[in-house]
């Protein structure tokens, strides 16, 4: 049963890497623009180094994801391989952890703005998951 979810693990990895990429981009863009004590935030090592470390990790995991997906396309029988399942499981764990760490760094870099960026959506109140029931107040 362990080796039957390889494709799903790769999909979860892709989604987690995309999420991490978005958070790293927010942190990096904000650090380039924000000025504190007459210096841009990206000039401080405590801000710049974690961002560059996360970018390196993201590139490494993204390359692994592409390689695994290409191997699965070329050899569909690898979907039943325990080795490929182990690789996909490791990538899934690493990529979701990267997303979590990127989220923490995004909140640390942007402060409260990181929280609003994280949970903001373009649809706003039209999103069915956050619809507010509106009652007729005139009755």
UniProtKB/TrEMBL annotation:
Q: What are the alphabetically sorted keywords of the record?
A: Flavoprotein
Signal peptide range in chain numbering? none
Q: Name one Pfam family in it.
A: Acyl-CoA_dh_1
Q: Which GO terms describe its molecular function?
A: acyl-CoA dehydrogenase activity
> In what residue span(s) does the Acyl-CoA dehydrogenase/oxidase C-terminal domain sit?
3-122
Q: InterPro entries attached here?
A: AcylCo_DH-like_C, AcylCo_DH/oxidase_C
This chain belongs to which protein, by name? Acyl-CoA dehydrogenase/oxidase C-terminal domain-containing protein
Species for this entry = marine sediment metagenome
